[in-house]
Design a protein that fits this description.
There is one protein chain. This protein has 297 residues and is α/β, with parallel strands linked by helices. It contains 8 helices and 14 strands. Strands 10-9-8-11-12-14-13 form a 7-stranded mixed sheet, sandwiched between helices. Strands 2-3-1-4 form a 4-stranded antiparallel sheet, with helices on one face. The chain has a 3-stranded mixed sheet with strand order 5-6-7, with helices on one face. The protein is elongated. GO terms for molecular function: protein-lysine N-methyltransferase activity. Its main location: cytoplasm. Methylates ribosomal protein L11.
């Protein structure tokens, strides 16, 4: 089965309205993106939690998918009329051929080497190194496939620093990748916490796939713990707000590992956590930093 992809340029005032109108007129899906994505004019609109929204894209591009027999000129005209526009916007149409979408999606995820002994391997791939420590992962709704620099930085820290038997808290566990890696690298008891129920569900599934046992909770259900290692790969503002709680979870002399921090934000986070930790930048990759420190007595 083939489809038609409709592309319409819109501004900040009309993009959302056109999107809703196209869905009402039979679109199978509609997405809105920055018309200047990938260029120097790309507009940032998503801030971190706690920051005011930066607004909407001033120049947007709508991508709508329709059945092959849909009358797109008539649909665009009807959408414009529904919004009270003086004239229908210009548009382009592309044919979309039948494809194996599952195979196309899976092709985006290949095995990822973290170190000489640690690999992330999607469930549909064979491991390039069966003798390595392989984290079998099914990329899904939760953050953490190993492809993002912040996740890799944390995995590399765990690979370098775990000696075996440590207790560990993974706060913001996402897919459970850090918790699972810690167990495969020799950690003892591991607890993961995330605000997203889909994340805790994905973490439990991925732990089962990897034949390890960890506990995953929503924040309100999580037990109070004191651990040897606290790992949190989130974002700068949440990390700053969570600092007292994460510090309280670390034993005296325990370690903390923080990521999800842009390089220029590192000093702000360090300034907050130095109340409880002797902490510095441990590593950096592609504009992101990983911080690590030791809990003061």
């Amino acid at each position: 089965m083939a489809w038609q992809a409709l592309k319409i340029a819109a501004d900040a005032k009309t993009a959302e309205g056109l999107s809703e109108a196209l869905m009402e007129l039979g679109a199978l899906s509609v997405s809105i993106e920055d018309a200047h994505a990938g260029t120097a004019e790309e507009q940032e609109i998503f801030g971190e939690p706690g920051e005011p929204p930066a607004g909407v894209w001033q120049d947007a591009l709508l991508n709508a998918l329709f059945e092959a027999d849909a009358d797109l000129p008539a649909i665009v005209a009807a959408a414009a009329e529904a919004l009270g526009l003086a004239a229908a916007p210009g548009f382009e149409v592309e044919a979309v051929a039948e494809q194996d979408w599952v195979r196309q999606t899976q092709a985006q995820f290949a095995p990822i080497p973290i170190s000489s002994r640690l690999w992330i391997v999607p469930t549909w791939h064979e491991s390039p190194d069966p003798g390595a420590i392989n984290l079998v992962l099914d990329p899904g709704l939760a953050f953490g496939t190993g492809s993002h620099p912040t996740t890799r930085l944390c995995l590399q820290w765990l690979d370098r620093n775990l000696r075996g038997g440590e207790t560990l808290l993974d706060y913001g566990c996402g897919s459970g990748i850090l918790a699972i890696a810690a167990l495969k690298l020799g950690a003892g008891k591991v607890v993961g916490v995330d605000i997203d129920p889909q994340a805790t569900q994905a973490s439990r599934f991925n732990a089962e796939q990897n034949q390890v046992s960890a506990e995953f909770y929503l924040p309100d259900d999580a037990p109070s713990v004191k651990v040897d290692v606290v790992v949190a790969n989130i974002l700068t503002n949440p990390l700053k707000m969570l600092a007292p709680m994460l510090a309280n979870a670390a034993l005296p002399g325990g370690r903390i590992v923080l990521s999800g921090i842009l390089s220029h934000q590192g000093e702000d986070v360090l300034a907050v956590y130095r109340e409880w930790f002797d902490i510095e930048v441990a590593d950096e990759s592609e504009g992101w930093v990983c911080l690590s420190g030791v809990r003061k007595a």
